[in-house]
Amino acid sequence: MQNRITSLLGIDYPIIQAGMIWCSGWRLASAAANSGCLGLIGAGSMYPEVLREHIQKCKAATSKPFGVNVPMLYPDIEKIMDIIVEEGVKIVFTSAGNPKTWTSFLKEKGITVVHVVSNTKFALKAQEAGVDAIVAEGFEAGGHNGREETTTLCIIPMIKEQIHIPVIAAGGIGSGKSMLAAMALGADGVQIGSRFAASVESSAHDNFKNAIVSAGDGATQLALKSLAPVRLIKNKFFEKVYEAESRGASKEELQQILGRARAKLGMFEGDMDEGELEIGQIAGNIHAVQSVQEIVEDILSDFHQTQMLMSEKLF
Predict the structure, then answer these.
(1) How far apart, in Å, are the Cα atoms of 21 and each of 42, 125, 145, 178, 243?
(2) Angle at which helices 48-61 and 77-86 pack, to 10 degrees?
(3) Is 241 contained in some domain?
């Protein structure tokens, strides 16, 4: 399955394991890399020296390419970037910020840069900043989301019309069928988060993994739109947020409800009532906790079988 993304990233399959907070440690990233995908360590939930430890352990666990996802709103961003360079990481996915801020710095160090966007305007800005590829993330995605609420099926062709660098589709993708659909719309690869969050190698708490596989249709909803839109599993914490937003609560009140370390409480420590449980709509189609190898094999088998079936139907 060689194309622009596999060539750019040095991987076997055009599949990227998303760098998710509290889920994407070195075990998940190295397992994804060893399965022929690009594994990403999620720096957003790590202190700088913790990130260094994860990078070093990942290097020891795989000889294949892996990268680091860096939300640019991170308070110690300079330390994070220095560690990435010092440890010889070759691929960085940036998000939640202006790509111009760090792209030149990273590329001068020989690092491939991919930036996450949710609309055409930011895709063009990322291309202008010199990134090597973009992730176009639709409204279905878990975690922090675009304010425009544009779905993946719409955002991929919109962005593909406007830019010439490779496009990676994200949001609502968890099977070979959805991967094929994204690529039919022009994507060069896919980024998958929720399904890998529920993997054996994910650093998420077992309670959270079980909540993902038991989630059904309508189990998630976008919340905290006035702060930073985030898709959450509906639980007691979500209901507090929903009630506050419904009566027009101020940003200050919502921030007070959110508090600190709410995502860690839910996703990493396993509090299913008061924790912030970030996951995508695709959770409704995830029915088991599997190893990364099993997930990748399942996606690829589904992709090829669907490709053959569609070919038979069309021709």
Answers:
(1) 5, 25, 14, 24, 26
(2) 30
(3) yes
Specify whether the CB–CB gap between 168 and 187 falls below 8 A: yes
pLDDT digits (tens, 9 = 90+) for 122-134: 999 999 999 999 9
The reply to whether 89 and 151 lie within a common domain is yes
| Residue 230 and residue 122 share a domain | no
Helix (H) or strand (E) holding 137: strand 133-137
Give the residue-averaged pLDDT of 96-109.
94
The answer to whether residues 166 and 34 belong to one domain is yes
Cα 309 to chain centroid distance, Å, stands at 29
Based on the domain organization, do 261 and 307 belong to the same domain? no
Q: Give this prediction's pTM.
A: 0.95
How far lies 263's CA from each of 140, 233, 272, 279, in Å? 19, 12, 11, 11
Q: Supply the angle between the helices 48-61 and 26-34 in degrees, to the nearest 10.
A: 30
**Residue reference for tokens 């397992």:** 31
The verdict on 169 and 245 lying in the same domain is: no
Residues 198 and 221 in one domain: no
DSSP string, 32-50: HHHTTSBEEEEGGG--HHH
Residue 246: inside a domain, yes or no? yes
